[in-house]
Write a structure and sequence with these properties.
Layout lengths: L1 H12 L2 H7 L2 H43 L6 H4 L8 H17 L12 H23 L2 H35 L6 H58 L4
Helix pairs in contact: 2-8, 3-7, 3-8, 5-6, 5-8, 6-8, 7-8
Length: 242
């Protein structure tokens, strides 16, 4: 009964603040660094989630509007601007290139384009798709660093702290002091706190990174499909049959 009461009292006093006080300077630096990693990782996950959600919504609206147009250049001729819509960015760049190839020396738009010009427009669409995909993927490298680097950084702090703890035990033994578990436990638990901090950074970052990669892969496929559909429609309307 006395042992249980003593154990409960000890556990109440053994708080995170106590572990922080027992941590070495190196462990504190690593924990603060992991905290900074966590802030940046959560910021990236939140901003990318908002960006992907907005891009998905705008893509849906634009694609529905585009499919209802009588001509592939109808939206382009209206000189609309849609910020944050990847499909519109691909469409605008492709239509700008097509319009430039259709313009005659007098400034009028020819009704048909050549096969060579249409191939150039296709390459423009491919480049635009690649640029939009890269723009959506920007910032993910920080999450990848958090996923792969945070556990090892935490492990480094743990190994360093355990090394210091056992070094202190060895020094005390040389001085004739017999250390017990009560002396070793605070140092070891403080050392293990860096591994916990590393996992707390890596685990949410891993789930967020995998979800973002899947969402961006879907977005890239949608961009590629739209570019192919747009190119086919351009050929149907402006490429003269031989």
């Amino acid at each position: 009964m006395n042992f249980s009461a003593g154990l409960m009292a000890a556990s109440d006093g053994f708080t995170l603040g106590y572990i922080w006080d027992r941590a070495t300077a190196e462990a504190k630096v690593i924990i603060v660094l992991l905290l900074v990693f966590s802030i940046f990782a959560w910021s990236v996950m939140a901003s990318k989630a908002v960006q992907i959600r907005r891009a998905r919504r705008l893509n849906h609206y634009f694609e529905a509007e585009f499919r209802g147009q009588p001509s592939v250049l109808s939206i382009y001729d209206r000189r609309l601007q849609v910020v944050g819509c990847p499909l519109f960015a691909v469409y605008l760049e492709g239509c700008s290139d097509l319009d430039a190839h259709l313009k005659s020396s007098e400034g009028t738009r020819r009704p048909y384009s050549t096969l060579k010009s249409m191939e150039h427009v296709k390459r423009t669409l491919e480049g635009s798709v690649a640029r939009e995909a890269l723009r959506l993927e920007s910032g993910l490298v920080l999450l990848a660093v958090a996923v792969s680097g945070a556990p090892f950084l935490g492990l480094l702090g743990t190994v360093w702290g355990v090394m210091d703890a056992f070094g202190a035990v060895a020094l005390a033994a040389q001085q004739g002091v017999r250390p017990d578990i009560g002396v070793m436990a605070p140092g070891v638990s403080a050392a293990l706190s860096t591994t916990v901090a590393g996992l707390l950074v890596a685990i949410p970052s891993m789930f967020g990174y995998n979800w973002l990669v899947h969402s961006l892969r879907v977005a890239a496929v949608e961009l590629d499909n739209f570019a192919q559909s747009l190119a086919s429609r351009m050929e149907t309307e402006f490429l003269k049959d031989e």
